[in-house]
Design brief:
The protein is 57% helix and 11% strand. The protein is mainly α and 151 residues long. The protein has 2 domains: 1-85; 87-151, no CATH class. The strands form 2 sheets. It has a two-stranded antiparallel ribbon with strand order 1-4. The chain binds zinc ion. The site of zinc ion has 8 residues, from α2.
Length: 151
């Protein structure tokens, strides 16, 4: 199995140090390769010298270059997702995310008209965003329940 350290070594080998890229969110110089949390080949392991479990991917394509601030925001956003959905069943999470998607969809035509954006492209992007978001939220909800039981 590829260890966490090997995975990060591979990213730098294939894509270079994060500092040679711009932050995907804000365009500032990046500082970290941040795991996207949505890999189908996700692995779990411990960091050298630590007992905490980390999730990571062996695939360098599953990481984004982020600055320190955006990395923190992303991780916190994920934590907020989990906290918001604690105690819900997986079905309820799925329904809830779908409802959020529908709400955003209602305004999409208007936003595209106002900002002169291509509706089909924006729709595709929004759809992909929600598929990913639903997937990773479900993963966390499952994990959360395994760790703490349902609250
Ligand atoms: Zn940034």
């Amino acid at each position: 199995m590829v260890t966490y350290e090997q995975a990060h070594h591979n990213i730098r080998r294939v894509r270079g140090p994060a500092s040679t890229h711009s932050c995907l969110n804000c365009g500032d110089p990046a500082a970290h390769w941040a795991y996207r949390n949505t890999s189908p080949v996700e692995l779990e392991g411990t960091l050298r010298g630590s007992s905490g479990m980390v999730r990571y991917s062996p695939d360098p394509a599953d990481y984004d270059p982020l600055c320190v601030m955006c990395h923190r925001i992303r991780d916190r956003q994920i934590a907020i997702d989990v906290w918001d959905w604690r105690g819900y069943t997986e079905e309820e999470v799925h329904e809830g995310m779908l409802e959020d998607f529908r709400v955003e969809l209602e305004d999409l035509h208007e936003i595209c008209d106002e900002e002169d954006l291509d509706y089909d492209e924006e729709l595709e992007e929004l759809t992909q965003h929600y598929i990913k978001k639903t997937h990773h939220t479900m993963q966390f909800v499952r994990r959360y329940r395994l760790m703490f039981g349902s609250l």
